[in-house]
Amino acid sequence: MLFIKLGSLGDIVLTIPALAMLRKTYPHARLSFMVSDSCEALVRRIRYVDEVIVTPDLGAGKSISQRVSDGITALKFAYSLRERKYDVAINTLRNPVFALMCYIAGIREIITFNSGQLDPFSTRRVPFDLNKHHMMRIFDLVEVLGVPRSSVLPPDGIEILQEDIDRATELLRREGIGATSLMVCSSPGGGSNPWAEMPSKRWNSERFARLYELLQRDFDARTVLLGSKTDTDTADKILKETKAKVLNLTGKTSLIETMAILKMSHLYIGNDSGPLFIAAAVGTPTLAIFGPTNASVINP
């Protein structure tokens, strides 16, 4: 069974309930997850996945020669999947190119969303309802296979190893945050992934700066900033604006280290971005700041 979802981190987290129920319904199935390299580490820690398949870089080139090269790469990649002999593909992407890749891979049953585009390769197409929560839309796909629905993120869906906790503990200890510290993790950046830029998702940096001051004043909390390298400018700006003692780990931790720190945190506060969804998935209380996206269809 091949499950296709390239990114982003938050969207992948919201597939976990469907993956859990898929595993429960088909306990002996081999479940492979196709993902982009930027989200590979997260998928490797999802308990219900047996195999991770990383897609090659298939971004549209700026020249004709680059686009031809991408097409040849995609074709070779699709043929390489034939040896795995998948029976079913669950394609969460509204792009018929991936249905074509599944067809080339020799997959008999290809379940996908009805994209409104020409797609002679998918065998089952389900409606795509923008008004449904993202988790429920994924269940629309797997329900075709008789999988029952669930609206709960499994508390142990993402596996955090003790060695991950140990490394994160040592990292925080070196920065003066010990076991007795009240730790609040926050990601003031976000709104950025390989497919889109949405800086409007970010709450005002001056407000984050003031919030961190209040957390320290009223609760003696240490705030730890997390995020990718694309968030460093936002974090640097906040550090200049706040009087709070903030530990800035933005762009300095691996995804696995970030996941472990989020697991250890007493609270997470942040924008609609990947760390929010990971925090929710590892059982950390979250306070999410949404806008302009509709929280009712994407919140974790």
Describe the structure.
- Helix content is 37%, strand content 16%.
- With 300 residues, it is of the alpha/beta class.
- The chain has eleven helices and 13 strands.
- It has a six-stranded parallel sheet with strand order 3-2-1-4-5-6, sandwiched between helices.
- Helix 5 links the parallel strand 4 and strand 5.
SSE layout:
Blueprint: E1 2-4, H1 9-13, H2 16-25, E2 32-35, H3 40-44, E3 51-54, H4 64-80, E4 88-91, H5 96-104, E5 109-113, E6 124-126, H6 134-142, H7 162-174, E7 183-187, E8 192-193, E9 196-197, H8 205-219, E10 222-225, H9 232-241, E11 246-248, H10 255-264, E12 267-271, H11 274-281, E13 286-289
Parallel strand pairs: 1-2, 1-4, 2-3, 4-5, 5-6, 7-10, 7-12, 10-11, 12-13
Antiparallel strand pairs: 8-9
Helix pairs in contact: 2-6, 4-5, 7-10, 8-9
